[in-house]
Amino acid sequence: MLVLGGTAEARALADTLTARGHHVTTSLAGRTRDPRLPAGEVRTGGFGGAEGLATALRHVDLLVDATHPFAERMSDHAAQAATTTGTPWVVLRRPGWTEGSGDRWVRVPTTSAAAGALGDAGSVFLAIGRQGVHHFAALEQVRLVRAIEPPDVLPPRAHLILQRGPFALDDERALLAEHRIDTIVAKDSGGATEAKLVAAREAGVVVVLVDRPAPPGGARTVPDVDTAVEWVENTPN
Ligand SMILES: NC(=O)c1ccc[n+]([C@@H]2O[C@H](COP(=O)([O-])OP(=O)(O)OC[C@H]3O[C@@H](n4cnc5c(N)ncnc54)[C@H](OP(=O)(O)O)[C@@H]3O)[C@@H](O)[C@H]2O)c1
Questions:
Q1: What residue's CA is closest to ligand 1, atom 29?
Q2: Which atom of ligand 1 is nearest to the CA of 73?
Q3: Cβ of 131 less than 6 Å from ligand 1
Q4: pLDDT tens readout for residues 141-161
Q5: Going from the N-terminus, what domains does the chain have, and what CATH number goes with each?
Q6: Which of 21, 74, 152, 215 has a CA-to-CA distance to 10 between 20 and 30 Å?
């Protein structure tokens, strides 16, 4: 089967399925220079749009789209290609986060809307990864940018930290204090990178949270690796 990867869940799924005797190929976009690799085979690089993916699917029994919730284009291509080829297909997407007592969240629909919402947000920590930083390129409020790979542009007063999550709560607390952060901009990715949200709640820091795009129309979505394994093992191919 083919797993469209780039997430911790995709890696865990490939590891589990391989250990259970399935033949798994994980596909990575190739954005990260030194990715953590899953068990099984790995291929790297784009397919050449939905048509290219459909060609690849001719050699595949089942498709799991385990890409990041914000990898919208790849998920759309997966939906189109699986429909064209009749390949059984599922989207593994971890649930988003829910605002709790003490949180000071402002939800926005897109990354560019987050940039527009900053106004007098004080010192801003951009925790959205490398993509989308260009929307903030002119904003002096941004004092801290964290990503795995360097973004193409950096806001004029931003300090860049190159690090891969997940991050420990104590480290997130220390980071917010050291840089005197008033506002964090983050994507509603869900999953294990939530320590920054806990640290923000404790410190009264505002979080501008970018809503995730809806999964493609017609998608069957499962929330975790165990349910994806169940789907794989119960789907005739
Ligand atoms: N967006 C995020 O915030 C984010 C965060 C963490 C991890 N990631 C991971 O980083 C990768 C790229 O994300 P993105 O947001 O740039 O994707 P995207 O905008 O949805 O996709 C852009 C293009 O990249 C190629 N691509 C994306 N994911 C691929 C995969 N798993 N295998 C092969 N090709 C892939 C496809 O090229 P072709 O059209 O040529 O096939 C796709 O059309 C994904 O694997 C995603 O899971 C993304």
A1: 29
A2: 20
A3: yes
A4: 999 999 999 999 999 999 999
A5: 2-95+213-234 (3.40.50.720), 105-210 (3.40.50)
A6: 152
